[in-house]
Write a structure and sequence with these properties.
The chain is mostly helical and 221 residues long. It is 72% helix and 2% strand. Strands 1-2 form a two-stranded antiparallel ribbon. Strand 1 and strand 2 form a beta hairpin. Helix 1 packs antiparallel against helix 6 and helix 5 runs antiparallel to helix 6. The longest helix has 26 residues.
């Protein structure tokens, strides 16, 4: 299936929004790994480390990875309810919730225990991954790159075989690169400006919120 044309794309499935979300996704993974020693997005890594440490009887370390997994699960459930309850407004409302949580965590960073920050950010990552699921009609992920990398490689193969253009591969390659860039920026900012580090993903999400809402406002004029 080829990437749809931009003119027929739903506003929350556009490439700029997907890239901003990928940037935020990589950034938050780097942030939580450096600050809390867990992954906000990559629950596969958390689950593997849970069982690795559990298999050697180090349950103190193993149980460290349980809270983000549970928070991610709760975030998915809330996102599913939000999609059912609000329909087309789910993307904007979920983004607003994500921004509010990140701002709260940033403000209370010095007062909240590490666990609370991890839970909040994993919840944010879950909502983002469950609400924003497509870019130009094609399934993608803004919180990990495994599927995106597969799509990029398959896109190249399809173009060579004459079954499509290189656009699909280019979009998914850009998502992978942007996720990595977000992780790099997140690691640098977390070490250099730890008290202000969450401001960068908040800015990215604010732009996403504006992109989701402005077309709706223009349609009413």
């Amino acid at each position: 299936m080829d990437i749809a044309t931009a003119s027929s794309t739903h506003r929350d499935e556009t490439v700029p929004i997907a890239l901003l979300l990928a940037l935020a996704g990589g950034y938050l993974d780097a942030y939580t790994w450096i600050v809390h020693g867990v992954m906000a997005n990559a629950q596969t890594a958390n689950l593997v480390l849970l069982w690795v440490y559990g298999s050697i009887g180090d349950w103190a370390r193993a149980l460290h990875f349980v809270p983000p997994i549970l928070a991610f699960a709760v975030g998915i459930l809330v996102a599913a309810w939000l999609r059912r309850a609000t329909g087309d407004r789910a993307s904007a409302i979920s983004t607003l919730i994500e921004i509010a949580l990140l701002v709260a965590i940033a403000i209370l960073h010095n007062r909240l225990p590490d666990l609370a920050g991890t839970l909040g950010i994993s919840f944010v990552a879950a909502m983002q991954s469950a609400v924003f699921t497509r870019v130009e009609g094609v399934v993608y992920s803004s919180v990990m790159i495994t599927g995106n990398m597969r799509q990029a490689i398959e896109g190249v193969f399809a173009a060579i075989a004459g079954d499509g253009s290189l656009r699909r591969s280019g979009v998914f390659t850009a998502l992978c690169v942007t996720f990595g860039l977000g992780a790099a920026v997140g690691a640098f900012a977390t070490k250099q400006i730890p008290n202000l580090a969450l401001g960068i993903p908040v800015i990215a999400l604010l732009i996403v919120l504006l992109c989701c809402e402005v077309p709706r406002s223009e349609a009413r004029i």
